[in-house]
Amino acid sequence: MRAIWKGSVSFGLVNVPVKLYSATESHDVSFRQVHAKDGGRVKYQRVCSIDGEEVAYADIAKGYETEDGEMVILTDDDMADLPVTSSREIAVEKFVPREQIDPMLLEKSYYLEPEKSGAKPYALLRQALIDADRMAVVTVALRQRTTIAVLRVKDDVIVLQTMMWPDEIRQPDFSVETGEVKDAEVKMAHMLVETLAGDFDPSEFEDDYAEAVQALVKAKIEGGEIKRTPTSTKSSGEVVDLLAALQKSVEAAKTARGESDESEKSEKKPAKKKTTKKAAKKKAS
């Protein structure tokens, strides 16, 4: 891991020199666009939509398109006048209850490592966050732009999570018509929740798509045959009897956990039990 930023956390009169590390990395499978005939990479030219000529990178400027379709060109001098900051301070503004931070606002996560001279105040801030069971709302300048973020503790390390601005969260423009929900259906839903209740363990889930792509590529390289695995399909039809569907879900969950009675076990084949567990695992992921 390489530090991508150095600065300090300030809360009150306490100053904690820290290093910032990216806490996450994407493992999404990426593909190149290539020519199917010979595998050559497809390149793109920067072409002006008006005169059709290729534009050199040095001649490219920033443009802001208005709602009317007009284009406002911003020069380097214009950009230089914008309010940017190079501050190296993570300023704690206030400590707030965890439940007041909507998870939808959280964006990217970073680890904070203290410099040697800041080990003790780092531990002080970490313990204060744990004891208060609160998050610290901070302002920080990343990439020359001030943003809001929160500090929280994970495995004895202080984590900084940048946040989106409130107006960046879209509001749903639709209404949900649920109709009448019967007491029996609610009771059965509660039973399903209790049956599937447990602790979150991320190691229980796998990225089946990435593994399948890797296996496919390996088989291609080795010149072997490609084995296709059957995929489960979900019905798009409307569930007519909600109570019956919930009852089946409870029974399936109990069967997957081995909690069914002996009569139920004798009626179900082992292969059916394995398939149900796999389907439930895929649905949870």
* General shape: extended
Mean residue pLDDT? 81
The share of residues in helices is 25-40%
- What structural class do you assign from the helix and strand content? alpha+beta
Number of strands: 9
Assembly state (oligomeric): single chain
Q: For the CA atoms, what is the radius of gyration?
A: 27 Å
What is the strand content?
15-25%
Termini separation:
28 Å
Number of helices: 7
Main beta-sheet strand count, sense and barrel state:
7 strands, mixed, barrel
Spans of at least 5 consecutive residues whose pLDDT stays below 50 are 225-229, 263-285
Which sequence of SSEs, written as H and E, runs from N to C?
A: EEEEHEEHEEEHHHHH
User: Widest sheet: strand order?
Assistant: 1-2-6-9-8-7-5
Topology diagram in text:
Elements: E1 5-11, E2 14-22, E3 62-65, E4 71-74, H1 76-80, E5 89-97, E6 106-114, H2 119-132, E7 134-142, E8 145-154, E9 157-163, H3 183-195, H4 208-222, H5 242-256, H6 262-267, H7 270-284
